[in-house]
What does this fold into?
Amino acid sequence: MKIGLTYDLRTDYLKQGYSEEETAEFDKESTIEGLEQAIQKAGHKTIRIGCAQNLMKALLKGETWDLVFNISEGLFGEGRESLVPALLDAYKIPYTFSGPVTLGISLNKAFAKQIVRDSGVNTPAFFVVSKLEDIALVKLEYPLFAKPISEGTGKGIDAKSFIISKEELTRVCSNLLSKFNQPVLVEEYLPGREFTVGVLGTGENAFVPGAMEISYNKNTHNFYSYDNKENYEGRINYEVVTGDLLEQCKAVALNAWKALNCFDGGRVDVKIDRFGKMSFIEVNPLAGLNPTISDLPILCGMNQVSYQDIIDEILKSAIQRNFTVITNENCNTLQSGT
It folds into this structure.
């Protein structure tokens, strides 16, 4: 198959003057190289497309691909992750990972939590602060935790995100509303152990290849913040999850994955609440795929699942979703499916 690659290269945006934090979700050259090698090893031809603007230009020129391997995050707005799949849908070009609706809902952490909660999955009580006046309506039990509603890579999360009073809540929300120009998700703090769970596949075929526990060294605030994620070496410890804890992680992750209609592969973050129950935090349906530094490849590697295995499973799921093999006496063809 001829497979196009859509992505946002971090160095391209840094050259345009965007900051390190603004570009934190974007990919390194080593990520694109790793993907190309794995996809080619799976027997396919790869063509670099790049960002959404490059995709639009290529589509207008009439270019097409059998499948697009999409990891483009986008830069602006709550629909930024939805742009590439929406464009590909318009041209009936199949692609890996979730569709525009799921990506838009998942990026808005409150929308995702509402759907997951209503499907019966445990998640902490929460409230959305869209303006400072909303703080008077917060009826949650302290301590609380606050973060921007639609950011990734730990943006907007630091030691101040842990809140023990209304005064602190007002101060933190005021800062986040001003800095990120979007609502703030405020939820009851989860004091227990923290895990990130890999998911591969779609629907009833989805499975968990492994999970890892995230813990923090002394003198490091105990949150998976932007600073900790960018400088994780020496600060964060990863450990394989086994036994009953793994089963609890699997149950929450797979139920949330299916409730949000996520496809092909990604990660679900979970944590134990004050009652000792595993709780959904958020989903990442476009998880990082750098072979050495991204959480999904790290946790898979710790569970004897190679990087090649990850890419093979993602491609297998996407091809099964998008194509139906039609066989008759005269031909075998691939026809676009539903």
Remarks:
- The CA atoms of residues 204 and 293 lie 29 Å apart.
- The first helix runs from residue 10 to 15.
